[in-house]
């Protein structure tokens, strides 16, 4: 069993509705995302993927499509009755606004990202962990073994 990790980065703004600190204001982060998968390398010498658990390019495509392209330079907000009018006003000017049913904390986003990525992995490859850095020194981690 071998683990592979690929790192991704994106810029994203968010606000934490109802929060009792400065993060209730719109602000941004330079996120770093580490996705680790595990599996047994392909043993068929005739396969173009011989010796690989998964092609790094395939992992890049999956995470790029599901996470990076969607969230890079986006504003992420939790849908609440209080922010409905502000959302409608912003949508007239800005196109990359993502509304979530959850508070867009690092913890909730890493769980959401893990669920989306796991559903897209090829047969024989499992999601092992996802780590999302919100800042250089603050991150949340999701491990499959903790979520059985």
UniProtKB/TrEMBL annotation:
<dbReference type="Pfam" id="PF01242">
    <property type="entry name" value="PTPS"/>
</dbReference>
<comment type="pathway">
    <text>Purine metabolism; 7-cyano-7-deazaguanine biosynthesis.</text>
</comment>
<keyword id="KW-0862">Zinc</keyword>
<comment type="similarity">
    <text>Belongs to the PTPS family. QueD subfamily.</text>
</comment>
<protein>
    <recommendedName>
        <fullName>6-carboxy-5,6,7,8-tetrahydropterin synthase</fullName>
        <ecNumber>4.1.2.50</ecNumber>
    </recommendedName>
</protein>
<keyword id="KW-0479">Metal-binding</keyword>
<dbReference type="InterPro" id="IPR038418">
    <property type="entry name" value="6-PTP_synth/QueD_sf"/>
</dbReference>
<dbReference type="GO" id="GO:0046872">
    <property type="term" value="F:metal ion binding"/>
</dbReference>
<dbReference type="GO" id="GO:0070497">
    <property type="term" value="F:6-carboxytetrahydropterin synthase activity"/>
</dbReference>
<keyword id="KW-0456">Lyase</keyword>
<dbReference type="InterPro" id="IPR007115">
    <property type="entry name" value="6-PTP_synth/QueD"/>
</dbReference>
């Amino acid at each position: 069993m071998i683990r592979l990790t690929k790192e991704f980065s994106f810029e994203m703004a968010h606000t934490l509705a109802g929060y009792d600190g400065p993060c209730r204001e719109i602000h941004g982060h330079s996120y770093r995302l580490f996705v680790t998968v595990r599996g047994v390398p392909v043993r068929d010498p005739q396969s173009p993927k011989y010796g690989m658990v998964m092609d790094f390019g395939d992992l890049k495509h999956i995470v790029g499509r599901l996470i990076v392209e969607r969230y890079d330079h986006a504003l992420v907000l939790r849908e609440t009755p209080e922010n409905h009018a502000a959302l409608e006003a912003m949508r007239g000017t800005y196109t990359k606004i993502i509304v979530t049913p959850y508070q867009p904390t690092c913890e909730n986003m890493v769980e959401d990202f893990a669920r989306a990525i796991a559903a897209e992995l090829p047969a024989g490859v499992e999601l092992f962990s996802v780590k999302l850095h919100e800042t250089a020194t603050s991150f949340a981690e999701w491990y499959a073994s903790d979520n059985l």
